[in-house]
Specification:
By secondary structure, the protein is an all-alpha fold. It is built from 18 helices and no strands. Helix 5 packs antiparallel against helix 6. The relative contact order is 0.12. The N terminus is likely disordered.
């Protein structure tokens, strides 16, 4: 949903449809599988890819910065400061750093954060990933009409420079009510599946996260009901006066921060944000690498394919040696021989990605 033209720079992503593309577009692989089983028609896929093309032609770097600010402001205004709230905010910011037309990147990051939070092994992580893909795909297909129409409305309104009125927000909010209800049902269903996968400590943390989600969902539902009644104002999306966003995320959003970094500062960022012994952090390296060398779509696809292959190999090793690896303190993992195969895979990732940029891209990155 949008603010007035005066505030559009802070809120022009916020139709429920675009929120969906920001949070759940990782469903594309599941959609492709459903196409093979004839559950959806070609028209849906064409509509989805058309929206992806339109959004990919926008200034995503600028858009992503605005999304981050909106997320921080909304969390601060709503008073969501408990640990599960801040974890959800951090993940939302990280997902928002990856353009919505790169769904596998979003899925890899989301799955890594889930596995890290609930201490899942490779087999458990695979089950969770499959469940998320399945439900996200079904959600996207079920709500395609609202998603496509609202996104098209958003893009046309922006291109024509028209202001967003309370009446328009009311219509969007009313149309989105079934979408939000469907989202809640699917999250609740996924929580049941997750509970059957995670260990005892993970179950306790999962329960806290679900309670936190229900709290946030209740706030969003109450707000959209008010907006549906025509009581929306642009200030609803601004930061509360005299306040600052809640504690900054533990993992800064990588892509946006790397955009204006010199090669030297980007290199320094590497050591702070990912570690060779932890495959769940490697996608951060890929993000900064892509930004530093301004990789095109084909190059990004190649980089992310290499990342996926090497992470899978690392996770397979972790699964076989999980008992031994967990006993090694984190302070020793950068040098301990048990983690050497994983560290070697990260070196391979660096080497193989280093072969992707052209000489021209390297020259531009060094100037």
């Amino acid at each position: 949903m949008l603010g007035s033209s005066r505030n559009s720079d802070r809120s022009d992503w916020r139709t429920p449809a675009v929120m969906l593309l920001t949070v759940a577009v990782q469903a594309v692989p599941a959609i492709a599988q459903q196409r093979e089983s004839n559950e959806i028609d070609t028209g849906f896929l064409e509509g989805f890819h058309k929206l992806g093309t339109l959004m990919s032609s926008s200034d995503w770097q600028g858009e992503q910065v605005r999304i981050e600010r909106t997320i921080d402001n909304f969390w601060a205004r709503s008073g969501w400061t408990d640990e599960p709230d801040l974890f959800a905010r951090d993940v939302a910011r990280e997902v928002a750093a990856i353009p919505p037309w790169r769904p596998m990147g979003r899925l890899d990051l989301l799955n890594a954060r889930i596995a890290e939070r609930y201490e899942l092994d490779a087999a458990q992580s695979a089950k969770v990933k499959a469940a998320v893909m399945r439900e996200a795909g079904r959600f996207l297909v079920s709500n395609a009409g609202v998603i496509f129409s609202q996104t098209q409305d958003l893009l046309e309104t922006r291109s024509r420079g028209l202001p967003i009125t309370a009446d328009r927000v009311a219509r969007w909010s009313t149309e989105s009510r079934p979408l939000m209800e469907d989202l809640s049902k699917r999250v609740e269903a996924l929580s049941v599946e997750f509970a059957a996968v995670v260990g005892p400590s993970g179950k306790k943390l999962l329960q806290q996260d679900i309670q936190s989600f229900r709290k946030r969902q209740k706030t969003v539902t109450e707000l959209t009901q008010r907006w549906a009644a025509g009581k929306w104002t642009p200030q609803d999306w601004d930061a509360p006066e005299g306040s600052t966003p809640a504690t900054p995320p533990k993992r800064p959003t990588l892509a946006s921060e790397a955009v204006n970094q010199s090669p030297q500062s980007a290199s320094q960022a590497v050591s702070r944000r990912w570690v060779a012994y932890d495959p769940s952090t490697w996608f951060a390296f890929v993000l900064v690498f892509e930004t530093r060398f301004a990789l095109d779509a084909g190059q990004k696809s190649a980089a992310e394919s290499i990342h996926g292959e090497l992470v899978s190999r690392a996770e397979a090793y972790q699964s076989v040696h999980s008992g031994k690896l967990k006993q090694i303190p984190k302070s020793q993992r950068t040098t301990h021989e048990a983690f050497a195969p994983i560290r070697n895979l990260f070196q391979e990732l660096q080497s193989r990605l280093d072969a992707i940029p052209t000489s021209s891209q390297r020259h531009q990155a060094d100037t």
